């Protein structure tokens, strides 16, 4: 067996025997055997624990350098994470697919440490699936096919990414809370413990930053997810109370079973995440755009027929400086950075967000754009093409007048230099 497994076996035997010695007084009281028997058992198990500890220490001295000890303690940290994910799955805080992917990744990384002595260079966290998903989304964004289906995929992907980040952050914090205890049992060197603590802090900070990005880009979804989590935790608190009362005999079994069944039903209902908060409602979006909030209800259906929803990945250009794109874009979600070339550098002119317009000059005059508009975060926008102006003037005169006014006003407004 690999060194990691041999040391794990020695440590388990040592810990099991030490635990049995500590439990011996309680065992003796419950089994009512003699003091002589208890003494023989204590001596036998203490000797066995000492032998296991001696073997463990010999193996560490002879075969374990800092790097190998680092890997062994990291394997223990992975075990803590897996136990935490299993608990979260049981309590309804993790979905089955996310749990399977997280544990699969830890198993692959653990096997690489055991047999190759290093972590995989590319973390095995559904890389192929992400590649297919991103390739599909790029195709949709270029062609405009299946926009509704693409938005559904994006919503579920965002929810899953949030779930990964949430589990990763709390899994790392669980390890950080346990690492001192783990290192004491395995007698790890202080240098190794410090390195691993720094490693899990970095991983926790990375996961935390992903959660913050979701909260900034999708605040409604983030708040709804936090609410569902809080409700599940409150239900588990109630369940634990009922179980304890049943054990003590304060609640009859039949009554406790009924209450627990109702609580479990509510927990199942609150499993996972509600992606409804990630779905864009065009009507709601129009009401949040000041220039279009006064559009009569009679014009809204025709206006919506002229709008085409698009999703723009972060760092992708929506409009390029010098291009002749004649569409007007209304930002529904995300942030867009407006920049202009100045020599070899780019100068930021403006930072736009939900309710703002992109492409004002090309939409009105059809000339080249004076600046580049680039998605700073993943964005959802609604596109209105210049070819729709005539139809829009005839069917939605109020909306067209409002658009012309705000476009001219904002085109004339001074920008940051």
Would you write up a description of this structure?
It is built from 14 helices and eight strands. Helix 3 packs antiparallel against helix 4 and helix 5 runs antiparallel to helix 6. 67% of the residues lie in helices and 10% in strands. It has helices at 3-31, 35-63, 66-90, 96-116, 127-143, 147-186, 190-217, 219-248, 253-269, 282-288, 300-306, 360-365, 389-395, 397-412; strands at 308-312, 317-319, 327-333, 336-342, 345-352, 357-358, 372-375, 379-385. The chain has a four-stranded antiparallel β-sheet with strand order 1-8-3-6. The chain is of the alpha+beta class and 417 residues long. It has three domains: 65-216, no CATH class; 221-276; 282-412, Jelly Rolls (Sandwich), CATH 2.60.120.10. The chain starts with a helix and ends in a 5-residue tail after the last helix.
Strand order across the largest sheet: 1-8-3-6
| Alpha-carbon Rg, integer | 30 Å
Choose one word for the global shape.
Answer: elongated
The class by helix and strand makeup works out as alpha+beta
List unreliable stretches of 5+ residues.
none
